[in-house]
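Thread: magnesium ion complex, take 2
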Amino acid sequence: MATSSSAPTIPPSSGKQVKIQLTTKQLDIALPEDSGPILVDTSQSLLNLHYALFFGSKTDLTFQISAEKSQRIPFDFLINGAILRTSLDDFLTTNGISAETVLHAEYVPAFVPPKHAASFEHDTWVSSIDVLSSAETKAHQALILSGSYDGLMRVWNTSSQVAATSQYLGDSRFVAATKAARFLSSTRVVSAGMDRVIRLWRFKEGESMTDNSKASVLHEADLQCHNQMVLAMDVQSDKQQLLSASADHTLALWNTDLTTAPVLNSETTTTKRQKRISTPAQIAPLSTLQGHTHHVTGVLFSPHVPNQAYSISSDNTLKTWSLSTESVLDNRPLQDPLYALTALTNMHLLALGSSKGDITMIDPRTSTAMIKVSTVRQAHSNGFVSSLANDPGSQYRFASGGFDGMVKVWDIRSLTSSTMTIDRKLDNDSKGGKVFAVKWDAEVGILSAGEDCKVRIDR
Amino acid sequence: NIDPESLLPKLPSVEELRPFPSVSSSIFRGHSGRVRSLDVDPSGQWVATGGEDGTIRVWELQTGHQTWAIKLGADEAVNAVSWRPGHDAFILAAAHAESLYMLIPPLCSPELEEASHTILDAGWGYSSTSSTTTTKKPQYPWIRPSAALSAKQTYTKTTLRSTIKSISWHRRGNYLSTVSPSGQSSAVAIHTLSKHLTQFPFPRLKGLPQTASFHPNKPHFFIATQRTIKIYDLTQQLLLKTLQPGARWLSSISIHPGGDNVLASSYDRRLLWHDLDLDNKPYKTLRYHDKAIRSVAFHPGGFPLFVDASDDGTLQVFHGSVVGDLMENAKIVPLKMLRGHKVTGALGVLDVGWDPGRPWCVSVGADGLGRLWV
Ligand SMILES: [Mg+2]
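Output below.
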């Protein structure tokens, strides 16, 4: 309990002080009544603001945060929408604000850096990850899907045990890597990769949490139209729709409901070489979207507008598509080839990752005449930002994975530096440790996959 | 006297000349021993490398993942690899010792694979029918490689008299040339895919040939000997021009995609830009390296860039824009020195090539590694 008797001594004042009016939008951490502007020493770091919040005011603090805990799990302070990262003195100087001014600061719970919780070992590089939440599983335990360069998919329980592994159905003359894998539902999985085919799989859970022997991933259907490798996918589970992005410069839209999906006309394909034991359904796309002039590297259903989607490409563009008219609604040229895409839904922002290691925030709604773009240069150092994932717990945060072996957490209110980093570089720096996929799950935490042949979970 | 250079407009800043490769990204690890050659495939998904370990390896370009490999032999190097131009097939030409191989790595669609087979199969028919009209069997027949290699998508093999050091395709993909510097009268070969035919149209070259290249849009052919670059008209069988780069020993040449400018690199540390509209001397001589320059390459299309590779372990990236106007000369600006390869046994970067669709280059070195620069 934070009371004045247990409060540590406020560091001695350097003389310069500023009045701050503290507010919050979150009821669970709001002060019971407005304390009015409080005086804070400007020479000290952020910690002083915490002291001010908890001990500087005369208000009786009733919420249950101990003095010790408040230091361990601190608040962030937002002034004019940006997180305060410097001392107040520096802030006042940089922004030319007089110490006479009453500063309005909003306090929010600061990001609690997750800790390494588990690693799932593979034999080869891991290219993709997805999560099925515990609420959707019979065993009430979250399941993790990984796709790897051995051309397989594995379903794991959170105790790092493999529940089920897919069969290799790629080309027999080389190991055709899996480049993308997703849960479609609690009973279906989709994968795609170097051998150009998108495969639907029926997933069956084991009987219990401890017995996974009956879990299985069984081949159900082939989705065929791409003639180069498939690099990325997005799913819209409620509508049973799938979008795929390929190095053949196209996107394809698919119906994953096999009872209504269009069947591939066998005359149009010459797949004599691809003999199969059983004959799974051969599905044709609802449409293919043409317009990019190089590999399509990322795709996303619009979180706001039905029948709209975004795609990125190594032709340097972000495109907005109408899926109903199969046309480009908006085309945004950027500086460099693009490799990663995620949406900060509530903020109406897309985050894009480039081959130069830059991350660009872009509002896809604004007209090209008034583009509002902010870019973090060299967010990752060895080129490619390979993956971006938004924080399901905050509309402001997202994680990025890069070929420099780092996973970084960013807050759009403070993009000058990352909020935290997870170092996945291999022991010997020169041996790399490229991160290929990042997924942020409300339950499981930050999952990342890469060249170190691991899925790593930080929670 | 006024220096005419001082009257020229100031060169733009390096930052204005973006994009160009500046960052070392993926590393291609797997060869044992020096990596001699590389080429990025026309789709930009794959890069093939050839090494002194006798292997060809095909890697996913972006990630550096080794996806396919074949060992052509243990004792001799794969000195050159080169993808057939165009998007209608997926054929890799490779030089191992004295032999030229045509391969179809299994990384393409069944349709593309079928098309590649058709292109390489056409010549079998030709050689059998032509043998009835000509009494002599071809001196350098195209044969099917051993069963073990055939099973691994090696399609044809032609064995010449001496070690092949370079390969160059004609843009349409039916002709390619090879150069065997010690091959004397059969040093420069021109091969016709559709006829499985190997010919030696230049039996009396003066000087030791080093490398050769087809003109990008005219029936012209460039042969670099140790000291000169000879330009021939292939239809008229005529020597058109002899360039005098002023270097003691040329290592590599690259023809600008427009066809009017030629870059040559030399073991005596020079990089020479020739404008074919000007005289036989270089328009610019560039000295940016402390050691031999082994390779030079114009970006094949879309970006006004060129890059060289040196035994000092570095690559130097330049802006090089060619203006259509005859009155205006090419603009050359050094952009970035790329460091990363380790000098190993006094050898550094052995070859460099571009991604055809992006401002990225790939290099291979004596350190056994390949590097993607983005
Ligand atoms: Mg000119």
